[in-house]
Every structure is written in C-alpha cells, then in structure tokens.
Specification:
Helix 1 links the parallel strand 1 and strand 2. The protein is 44% helix and 20% strand. The protein folds into three domains: 224 residues, Isopropylmalate Dehydrogenase, CATH 3.40.718; 126 residues, Isopropylmalate Dehydrogenase (3-Layer(aba) Sandwich), CATH 3.40.718.10; 37 residues, no CATH class. Strands 2-1-3-14-13-4-5-12-10-11 form a ten-stranded mixed beta sheet, with helices on both faces. It has 401 residues and is of the alpha/beta class. Bound molecules: NADP nicotinamide-adenine-dinucleotide phosphate and magnesium ion. The site of NADP nicotinamide-adenine-dinucleotide phosphate has 17 residues, from helix 10.
Length: 401
C-alpha cells in the first residue's frame, strides 16, 4: 500500500538528550514507513537554541501560529549546571514558557490508561485530564515579610491617580504578606481553551475554585466561565452530549476520588500544579502522561509530559543499554497527526494515529514493556524490553493500515 499523503506540514520541534534519541527512532520506525511525512523542522535542542540566541524557539512558535499544529520533543530548561555543560551564552528561558506565552494557551495533561498498569484509585476506569491555568496567582505574587506591628493595605492607583484601598490586616506583631493578581483576558483565554478542548475530545468539563472563601478573586473565575459558557458553548455542549459543571474545589476533590474518570478537570494555577502531580502519580507513571497546549485561537502543540530523561541519556552515551518508555512521545505524534488529519480532512491520517496508539497499548497489555512499567505492572512475568526493542514491538503490532 502507498504511504499516507499529507497536505499541511506539522511543525516539528526537536529536543534534547534521551527524548531526542527516541524522537528519531519513532520517526524512522513508526512514521516514515507509513506516512509521506510533511514537517517544518525546528531544532530546539539546547545547542541550537544557544547558537540562534533562542530565536529558533520564537520561529517555531510563529510557525505554530501559521500551521496550527505542532509536535514537540522534551527540551532542557537551562539551570546553572546546564550553562556550564553546554557552554551557554546565557541561561535561556524555558522553551515551554516561551511557546505558551506566544500561543496564549492552556496545558491539558492526560494519562494513557492500559490494562496491567492499574490506578491507585480503584474506581478510576478512564483517564482524568487536568487543565491548568498557566498565568498569575501565587506564581506572579509579590511578597513581604512584616517585621512588626503596623497596618497592611491593598492599594490600587488608577491611571488618573485615584486610589482604592482595602485593609488587609492590622498587625500587632511580625507576620507575612502576599499580593496576587490575575487578568480578565487570561482567564477568558483559559475558559475558551477548556470549552474548546472539551468539545474536541467530547468529554465533560469540571471547573473548581475556592469561590466561597474568595468572593471576589475566585468568584471572578467562576463568573467568567459561566458567562462564556452560556453565551458561546452551551448549545454546542448539548449537541455533543457533554456537560459543563462548576463546583467548589473541596467538593471536586471528593467527587474525583469516587468517580470513574473520563472528564477534564480545569484548575487554577496552583491547584492544577498540585493536582496534576497527584493525578499522574496515581495513574501510574510520568512516562505515560501526555500533554497538549491548546490556545483559544485554535493552535495545538502536542508533547510528552516528562522531561529529557537525562539519567538514561548518560547511560546511552556510555554505550550501556537503556529501557526508556517512548509511549508518551509516540502519543505526542499521534495527537498531532490526528489533529492534522481532522483539520485537513485526511481520515487515513487520523486512522493511522488511532492504529499506532492501539499498537502501543496492545504491546503493553501483551506483557511487553519498558522497565519503568515492568516495575509497577500487575501482569505476571512481563517481558522487559530495551528502548529500541519496545519501539520494534510496537511496529509489529501496527495493524489495519
Ligand atoms: P524527567 O526527564 O522527566 O525524568 C525524571 C525521571 O523519571 C527519570 O530519571 C526516570 O526515572 C523517570 N522517567 C521520566 N520519563 C521517563 C521515560 N520516558 N521512561 C522511563 N523513565 C522515565 O525529569 P528530570 O530528570 O527532572 O529532567 C531532565 C531534563 O528535562 C531537565 O533538563 C528539565 O529541564 C527537562 N524537562 C523538560 C520538560 C519539557 O520539555 N516539557 C519537562 C520536564 C523536564 P529513572 O531515572 O529512575 O529511571
Ligand atoms: Mg508540580
């Protein structure tokens, strides 16, 4: 059979370390034999980011705005040790941060559920996707240590000089202070991304904040979601047979624990940070967590949730065998290909993405897996495969193409 043809290229963002090694294997073994793969390639490997003064990250984000769908390999976020290791001109910013800021998106993280890797929560049968608002609150807060007695106030000075004041507290001894903010525009973008993604994936959407305590701040989040839902999405949700449901975060936590899963849980920045770690570890493994950045303007960027798996890469460089799980990176590709297939009306491309995902799941469910999963599986006597063997085993399982 001929290879599947593409119309519009995917924006391909290559990355670092072990995931860069896996990236090439996936393309060579699982994609290029079946697809006339069209990509516009950007090398976000740290060496090339440094050579281009990080312009390549900006170019890749702009290309995503142009073509709408991108697939990204994990990349190093430089710290002091990396500046030395790669002899960097400066400590470049996190590529994910740059891309997210340029696309104005929300990140959705969803675990890949397979039989044999059982969630710690017995009732969970289907994945729970977390949508984390990625702007403001405690992450952009100003803080102060209060040395002793005194009065703390919130002061807003309008452009015309008029001031509004709100008493925070009259201190009679030392304490601490924090000022948080968020932006209506950012909350609206967050809401649109969540409603769009729910429609896209045909899943119910939950949203929770602490609006009973935070009657202005958190309540604004609740109101914005409600207004946008009523105005723009309600009829589409009804048509798709899905629901939007707001509840207090305490109630949401209790319900999540008793649920079967299968929905999207939208969270404010801090809640999303904490809850996504809880969800991913309770579902089994970071190596089985997918991630997609959805912008309210209709741009999509797919990736694995894990990093570059540095420790495995150094083993690989020493010529030692590695058993690195490639599933989340494969699902980044299938997510992007399926979306490209939908947008360009190429059903074969979307079907291929389904088949490749199925092949991954069947490989694991048949007992063939990488070491990270073998350590936690309920399957008796699993076959532990190395990085390359696992990808070859998936290839054997690709059917119906
Ligand atoms: P990591 O790459 O996610 O790896 C942490 C540990 O988790 C690994 O050492 C490994 O455990 C296990 N693991 C993660 N993914 C795995 C996989 N696919 N297969 C098997 N085991 C897996 O996180 P990190 O070591 O903290 O960060 C390494 C680099 O990645 C950093 O430079 C960081 O900046 C970057 N990073 C990038 C992104 C991104 O691009 N989105 C996200 C996070 C981190 P064992 O070693 O015990 O086997
Ligand atoms: Mg966290």
């Amino acid at each position: 059979m001929g290879k599947i043809k593409m119309i519009t290229p995917l924006v391909e963002m290559d990355g670092d370390e072990m995931t860069r090694i896996i990236w090439k294997m996936i393309k060579d073994e699982l994609l290029l034999p079946y697809i006339d793969l069209k990509t516009e390639y950007y090398d976000l490997g740290l060496k090339h980011r440094n050579e281009t003064d990080d312009q390549v990250t900006v170019d890749a984000s702009n290309a995503t705005k142009k073509y709408k769908v991108a697939v990204k390999c994990a990349t190093i976020t430089p710290n002091a040790a990396r500046v030395e290791e790669y002899d960097l001109k400066q400590m470049w910013k996190s590529p994910n941060g740059t891309i997210r800021a340029m696309l104005d998106g929300t990140v959705f993280r969803t675990p890949i559920v397979v039989k044999g890797i059982e969630p710690n929560v017995k009732s969970w049968k289907k994945p729970i996707a977390i949508a984390r608002h990625a702007y403001g609150d405690v992450y952009k807060a100003s803080e102060m240590k209060v040395p002793g007695p005194g009065k703390a106030e919130l002061v807003f000075t309008a452009e015309d000089g008029t001031q509004t004041r709100e008493l925070i507290h009259v201190f009679d001894g030392p304490g601490v202070l924090q000022g948080q903010h968020n932006l209506i525009g950012s909350i609206e973008s967050f809401a649109h991304s969540c409603f769009k993604y729910a429609l896209d994936t045909k899943k119910d959407l939950w949203f929770s904040t602490k609006d009973t305590i935070s009657k202005k701040y958190d309540h604004t989040f609740k109101d914005i979601f409600a207004e946008i839902y009523e105005k723009e999405y309600k009829s589409q949700f009804e048509e798709a047979g899905i629901t939007y449901f707001y509840t207090l975060i305490d109630d949401a936590v209790a319900r999540v624990m008793k649920s079967e899963g299968g929905f999207i849980w939208a969270c404010k920045n801090y809640d999303g940070d904490v809850m996504s770690d809880m969800i991913s570890s309770a579902f089994g493994s970071l190596a089985m967590m997918t991630s997609v950045l959805v912008s309210p303007h209709g741009y999509y960027e797919y990736e694995a949730a894990h990093g570059t798996v540095q420790r495995h890469y150094y083993r690989h460089l020493e010529g030692k065998e590695t058993s690195t799980n490639s599933v989340a990176t494969i699902f980044a590709w299938t997510g992007a290909l399926r979306k490209r297939g939908e947008l360009d009306n190429i059903p074969e491309l979307s079907n291929f993405a389904d088949a490749l995902e199925k092949a991954c799941i069947e490989t694991i469910e048949s007992g063939k897996m990488t070491k990270d999963l073998a350590l936690i599986t309920t399957i008796k006597n699993p076959t532990v495969l190395n990085t390359e063997q696992f990808i070859k085993a998936v290839k054997e399982n690709i059917k119906n193409i």
